[in-house]
Amino acid sequence: MIDKARALALEILYKIDKEQGYSNIVLNEEIKQNRKKLNDKDIGLISEIVYGVTTWRLTLDEIIKKYSKIKLKKISVWILNILRMGIYQINFLDKVPKSAAVNESVNLAKRYGHSSSANFVNAILRKIEKKDYEELFQITDDIERISKTTSMPEWIIKELLKNNNIDKVERICECSNLKPKVTIRINKLKITKKELLKKLQEQGINYKETNYDDFLILEKVKDIENLDLFKNGFFTIQDISAGLTAQVLQPQKGDYILDACSAPGGKTTYIAELMENDGIIEAWDIYEHRTKLVTQNADRLGINIIKTDVKDASIYDKSLNEKFDKILLDVPCLGIGVIKRKPDIKWQRKIEDIKEITKVQQSILENCSKYLKKGSTLVYSTCSILKEENEDVIYKFLNENKDFEIIENSMINIIPDEEKDGFFICKLRKK
Fold first, then answer.
1. Residue 261 annotated among the catalytic residues of the structure
2. CA nearest neighbour of 75 among 45, 40, 39, 112
3. Are residues 26 and 108 in the same domain?
4. Nearest CA to 385 among 330, 342, 422?
5. What does the pLDDT look like over 257-279, one tens digit per residue?
6. Co-location of 245 and 388 in the same domain
């Protein structure tokens, strides 16, 4: 009999491959559709397998290559993912007995392949041991070893080495495989920190305080968006690094602010909260369905100073020259700093993408800088940690715009760690 949780995990992995979908989105959609057939244990196993296989794909494939005489590209996507799932369970999930991982994988191969596929899966998985992963640490070439032990494409490692030493790059790659924390931002327009902590305690929700007063880490919380505390707008889900962009901007009551790449609205709403819901924020995105997300977030949090507009920040609009007191440009990027949340980034991005994305980043910065009043400040940020998308974009802009300067000590590189995502933040002043 087929295990329904593993079968659904396999179908989700197939969908991610076939449609180039993001694992978190595909996973959430499939779980919603199948919620009545699944219990909490099923959902936990499905999530673990989908994220685990997506995160560790390169490493899992390396182990398959060790035992398979058939080249990976000649193995059907279904069977390849069954092998990945089996190896992930054997090597990385201590609670799953090897016999269960092998037997369930063989059952899946019978359904999604044929008898010879099942024999192939059985033959390979029976040979798999934890030492197959441990042996990869003996590789002498640093780049190859880091790539195969942390499941990070070599091109990303080489890019990171442009402004980090090898030990730091290895640490970044290791942290990119950690399970992301659930970090929330307290909405002080609606509740004090003390009151929220009391409500969390009353509901038996474990939390951990952070070094940042507005942020908490919730532990072992499920269906967070269905909590009344969330629905009532007492908090929103946001990583600390993303929140720091709003803090660096230092918005004040009464400011007229542009957030030019705003959706889904986490930073926009934090700016509004720091302004005590007093002033005006123009929030742009190029897609209407994404500006609606900003509005929904603002409504839930009790914010009414955000005006959304479907607008492309990379296209210059002369009528906006010197209109804003402050500007936030959290520009589109390759997202290398948030791989632990979106592991698909490792497999969907290519080195050629850097050239394309930096063009967009430079045009947004160039155009939107003209909308800033003299003597005012602009924050440029990305959730990437590649030099080309960050320092290089800033220095190229400053070379061509002598009326701008970096505010002292405000170029911040945040490396991903146990609590925070990787981020780049830089604050500029128009002289």
1. no
2. 112
3. yes
4. 422
5. 999 999 999 999 999 999 999 99
6. yes
